[in-house]
């Protein structure tokens, strides 16, 4: 009976005594680990499988990160809970694909279609004497050079557009932004046929989070019309400076952030609402955070160096500095006792 049990045991283990077998699945790979007397455990295969899986996951994560849109839409949980649509939805003019459909449903946005066409006419008149290409050739060159800018947007936003419609949308939007900025800088917005109220709304709309064009679109248009990229950067800087004039500065004490979208309180409320709804990602913008910390620390060091240079550069300045502090202390004590006399001093 014992011999029979021994045979059965050997048969169940494939004829090997005291052998234990296990299977480990790592990234869809099944690794068999053998253990027991007289057998070698294949740890190297298991570790190599883990390493391979980790490298694969890292590559996948990097690929997904590269594929993220560069002009993303506001996340749904921010849309649903916070109700600050005025920060990302345009009121009078749509730029790009995210609110393109509103041209058919919003009367004000629809009316801006005619203004965009006026902007195209004005754009074609720019630098006409120096330009060597016809209007049609300019558009053809533009269409060739902006191939791929649709990838800057979320895919579902351009799914129902054919290539020609997308190019027309980019061309109209780019011409409008360029001519609107130029007209603002030259104080002749009447050429676009807009009222002062509309101009103010447009200035807000072209800064909306979901109402943006890739810079490549503006660059191609400006160079195709015969100007340099430096000319485009110059008018953009002038326009931003023009918009910022008269507005206040949040992180203003450190000189980090400028607000051209509203006053300090409004911007602070906006940021606080966003911060309350999003999950913290501690690794995001870590380089920016480090640079901000270094910048603020450098300001503090500069202030400390200035104090040392002006007040502690020699023994005499140190004595004068300490004497000044001591006099301030005595003045504070004297003021205190004058306001709250001690009952034992006869007063």
Automatic annotation (TrEMBL):
Region (Disordered): 1-37
Biased composition (Basic and acidic residues): 1-30
InterPro entries registered for this protein in UniProt: DUF247_pln
Alphabetically ordered keywords of this record: Membrane, Transmembrane, Transmembrane helix
Entry superkingdom: Eukaryota
Residue intervals passing through the bilayer: 166-185, 318-339
Entry annotated with the keyword Metal-binding: no
Name used for this protein in its record: Uncharacterized protein
Organism of this sequence: Nyssa sinensis
């Amino acid at each position: 009976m014992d011999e029979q049990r021994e045979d059965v045991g050997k048969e169940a283990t494939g004829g090997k005594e005291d052998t234990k077998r296990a299977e480990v699945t790592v990234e869809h790979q099944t690794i068999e680990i053998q253990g027991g007397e007289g057998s070698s455990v294949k740890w190297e295969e298991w570790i190599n499988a883990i390493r391979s899986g980790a490298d694969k996951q890292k590559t996948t994560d990097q690929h997904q990160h590269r594929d993220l849109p560069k002009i993303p839409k506001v996340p749904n949980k921010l849309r649903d809970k916070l109700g600050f649509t005025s920060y990302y939805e345009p009121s009078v003019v749509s730029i790009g694909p995210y609110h393109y459909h509103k041209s058919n449903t919003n009367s004000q946005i629809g009316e801006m279609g005619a203004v965009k066409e006026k902007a195209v006419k004005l754009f074609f008149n720019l630098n006409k004497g120096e330009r060597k290409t016809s209007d049609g050739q300019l558009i053809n060159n533009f269409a060739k050079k902006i191939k791929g800018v649709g990838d800057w947007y979320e895919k579902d936003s351009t799914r129902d557009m054919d290539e020609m419609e997308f190019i027309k949308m980019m061309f109209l939007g780019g011409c409008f932004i360029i001519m609107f900025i130029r007209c603002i800088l030259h104080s002749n917005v009447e050429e676009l046929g807009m009222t002062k109220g509309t101009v103010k709304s447009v200035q807000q709309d072209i800064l909306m989070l979901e109402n943006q064009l890739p810079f490549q679109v503006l660059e191609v248009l400006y160079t195709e019309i015969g100007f340099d990229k430096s000319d485009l950067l110059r008018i953009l800087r002038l326009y931003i400076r023009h918009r910022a004039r008269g507005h206040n500065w949040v992180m203003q004490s450190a000189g980090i952030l400028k607000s051209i979208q509203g006053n300090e309180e409004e911007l602070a409320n906006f940021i606080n609402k966003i911060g309350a709804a999003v999950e913290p990602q501690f690794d995001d913008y870590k380089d920016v955070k480090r640079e901000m910390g270094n910048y603020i620390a450098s300001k503090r060091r500069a202030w400390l160096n200035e104090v040392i240079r002006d007040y502690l550069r020699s023994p005499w300045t140190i004595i004068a500095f300490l004497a000044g502090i001591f006099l301030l202390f005595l003045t504070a004590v004297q003021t205190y006792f004058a306001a709250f006399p001690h009952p034992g001093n006869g007063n």
